[in-house]
Fold this sequence. Notes:
Shape: flat
Radius of gyration: 20 Å
Amino acid sequence: MIVALIIACEVAFWILLLGGLSLRYLARMPRTGAAVLLCEPLLEVVLLVVTVIDLRNGAAPDWKHGLAAVYIGFTVAMGHRVITYMDVRFAHRYAGGPAPVRPPKYGMARAVHEWRTAARWILACGIAAGLLQGAVWFVGDGGDATSLRSWQVKVGVVAVINVVIAGSYTVFPKRGVEEGTEARPGAGGGPRAGSGERWGESLTKR
């Protein structure tokens, strides 16, 4: 049941996302679209409640409960980023918004971008690890929490990998034609850098 619910939550996430953006930009119903998008966090709440009830009813903790905790952690940390990413592209395509700005490719700007990406992954891993630890305490000494702890190790490895990747761009910055060149209007380092993302973020707050 837990696995089926995880799949259902993932499908529902994309249905709500595409439905909300379609209402906002295609149907010209921004408030209704925003209301639909605000329903996204309810999916994680439902999954969390069902998982807790399953454990409370005596189910032995296994990989499915660990997967639910990891899914919730990553959705909470990454969900807003995915919504903003899609929102910017819908705004550009259907509402005359600015074109999405590509991330920097070279130098310290790329390193900063990689650290921001790593921070989101580390946050996701931290939330997942916290939920897993909560499940371990919930099960107590009388239950076998081996599977839950193995998931904690896995998310820890993911966090370390992201730190290593971001660190490599800091220690060995990627060099190219962008580094050291003057910023031009509309270029990645120019005045419009990040404007597409700011557009999406402002719309999600309406």
